[in-house]
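Q: Okay, next protein. This is DUF4347 domain-containing protein from Desulfomonile tiedjei. I've checked the sequence twice, so it should be correct. Can you predict the 3D structure?
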Amino acid sequence: MSESKRSTHASIYAREMILEALEDRIVLDGAVDRNADDYADAVLVSDQALDQGQGEVVAVLEDYCDGNWHFVNGWWFAYQNGFNLWYYDSLHYYAQDAATSRWLWFDAVIDNQWEYYQTWEYDSAIAYWYYNDWNGTYYHQNDAHRYYHDHITGIWWQYNAYTGAWNPDATTQFAYGQETQYWSNGDTDLHCWLTNDGTTLLDWWIFNAGSDGQWSGGALNVVLVDYTDFFECVEQYTKTDVIVIEYDLTNDGFATVVDGLRILSDYYDTQISNLAVMSHGNSTGMYFGEWISSSNYNNYYNDFLELNAYMVDNGQIMLYHCQVGAASTMLGKIAVWTSTDVFANLGDQWYYWTWYSSPYEETDGIWNHNYYQVHLGEYLFEYRSDRYATYNMLFNFA
C-alpha cells in the first residue's frame, strides 16, 4: 500500500480483547528483565556442565547483552544500541527501548520502518489513528471508518458498528489485489462479480450499461430481484447504469442483503440513491431477504440503521410488493430509520407493477394491461412516507 497504507482505517473496539494476550506473548519466557539495571548477564543452564563431585547441573553465565544474536525460546534476541531486539520472522520483529520500556514493531509489510507497537499513534498525513498488534494493524478515523489489516493473509477487514462483525472490505481488497471480473455478451448486458481468495463476495448485473460498458458514475441506483419467481422478467427494462442484484429474497436473510449493499456501496465508493425491491408481500408484511412484517419489524432495527449508512439522506426505497402499503406504521418506521422516502403498493402488485410484456404467456395480458399505469406515478405507489415525494422510476418502457 506504500504511502497510501493508512488510507485504510481502524477500530479501537477490538484492542481490549487482544492487549492481555499480546502482553503475555511479547514478554516471552527467558526475556531480559526490562527493569533490570544495566541489563545484567542472563543465566543459562547447560545440561552438559556438571559439578564433578555432586553430579548437579551448574549454572553457566552467558552474556546475552554482548551485541550478538542469541536463540532464546524460539526467538532470536540481541541487545544493541540501547534496544532489546526480538526476531521471529519478517512479520514478527520487535524492539524494546531499554530506557523507556516502550515497544516498537518493524513494518516489513509496507514501508520497512520501525513503528510503535501496542499503542495508538496519529498519522496526520491521512488523519487516522493506527495501532500495531502482533498480527496486523488497526486503523480508526470515526465510527464509519474502522479497519484492520491482517499482515499474515493480507486481507483488509472493516468493522460494522451496528452488528459488531468484521467484514472483508471491498474497496481495499480491490485496491490491493482482490479484483472484480466481468463478462459482456457484446451487447449492453454486463455481469460483474467481486471475489476474495476464490470466494464470491457479491455479483451483480447492469443490463443497460453506459457508453463505456461499465457503471458510468452519478447516482447509484439498485434493484433487488427475487430470482425464485418471475421477477427476473423486469431486469431487461432497467434504465442505463441501474444495477441489479439477484437474491432469494424469501430465504437469504435481511442481514445478508444489507451486507451485499454494503459491499456494492463500498466498491463504487458512493452511497445508494434509489433502491427498488421486487418480491412478494401482503397487507401485513413483505419478503426482503426474509419475512419482515408489522409484528416483527422492530427485530430488524439495527439492520435498517446499517442500511441507512449505505444510502444517501432522503434517498428512496421502492417496495414492489403486493399490498404492503397497508402496513403504514412499519413503513413509516423504516423511513425514519433509513432516512429515506419509502414507497409501496396498497393493491395487488400484479396490477401495479407488472407491465409491458412477459416471457410467461399466462401473464402477458396483465403486463400489457398495466403498461400505461406504470407511467402514472400517482397510481403506481399509493403509500408514500412523504406524501409530497415523487418516486424515481428505475425502469424504461419506451
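A: Here is a summary of the prediction. Helices lie at 15-26, 170-175, 254-268, 301-309, 328-338, 349-352, 364-369, 377-380. Confidence is low (pLDDT under 50) at residues 1-61, 351-372.
Q: Noted. On to the next one.
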